[in-house]
Amino acid sequence: MFRHIILLCIVAVLSWSVVSAHVLVPPKGYSVGFTGTIRNGVQKYVCKHGYWIKTGSSADVISSDGSKLGTYRAVYDQNARTNTYYWNILNSAGGSHESGHAVSVIQASPLKSVRVSSSAIPEYLAIVKVRRGGGDTSQVTFVSLTGTRGGLPPRQALCTGYGSTSGVPFGGKFTFYTVDREPPQVPPSLTANGTFVQSVFCEGKISYRFTGGRWIRRGFSAKMSEVAGGSSLGQCGTVLKPDAYGSKVAFRFGSPNGFWLQGRQCTQPLKISSDGCPWQLLAITTSGGTESPMGRYKYVLIGATYGGEPPNLAARTEGMTWGSCFTAQAYLFAE
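Below the sequence we write its predicted C-alpha cells.
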C-alpha cells in the first residue's frame, strides 16, 4: 500500500517576474512537435466596480504555411484566480486516419507565467491535463505561449459602466512539445545498462519534512499514465514495507498487462532539469506479473522532472511537512 501524502500542494506561478522567455520550456526529454501563430486574438475583459477584470481569451491558430491549424480559448476563474487553456487542433490526414477523428482537443493548466514585456500580456508554460480525440496532439505534454503582443486591459477611465465588456487584440506564438520516443542522454552515473522498453508519465507529489535545519525528502506518490492527461496505467511511489533487499520504491501497473516492480536508488541523484527535482536511477530488485518480451525489468530511470523541489525558505517549526507537486517520465529498461 502506498504511503498516503495528505499535504497542501502549492504551485508558484510567477505572474509578474521579469524573466527571459527561455525559461518557458519543458525539461530534457521533450521536443518541439509543432508550432502555431495567433491570429484574430482577443483578450476579454469585463468592467466591475471600476476595474477591468480578465475573463478569458480566444484566437485562431495558424500553421507555418499559413493554413489554419485550429483554435484557442482561455477561461479565467476569478474566484480561484486560475486559467484553463483549450486548443482544438485540426488533425493532418495521417492523424485523422490513425485516430479516426478530424479534430484533437487538449486542455492545459499553467505551470509558470512570466511578464516579459510591459506592453503585453504575460507569457506562459502549461501542461496538458485532459485530452480528447487523439491524432496530432496525442503526444503533446507541454504548450508554451511566447512572443506576446498587446492584450492588456483598457484604461481604467473607460471602466464606467458595471458589466461593460471589452475585447483587446493580442498576438503570440504557441509551441507544442511532445514526449521523445527515446530516453534523453544522461551522465554515465545515470545510464542504465539495459534495453529501453517503454516510458510512462508520472504526476504526483514529493513529501519533505523540515528536520535539523533542512528539508529532508521522505518519499513520493504518483499516478502513471501513457501521456499527460491520458489513460491511467497504475501508481508508483514509496511504500511502507520494503522488499527483502530493502527496496521501497514500487511501480504497480494495472490490467490488461498487469505487473509490478520494486527497486532502490543505485546511484547518486543528479540535478538535470533546471525547474525539476534531481533525476535518479533505480535498480529493480523484485518484480512480478507479466514480463516484458525483452526480458526481466532491470532499471527504472526517473527523469524529465518538473517541480518536486523543497521550499527555498526554512520552516518556522521543526517537523513541518511539505508536499511538492511534480511530473516526470519513468523510463523502463530490461536486461
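The mean pLDDT is 92.
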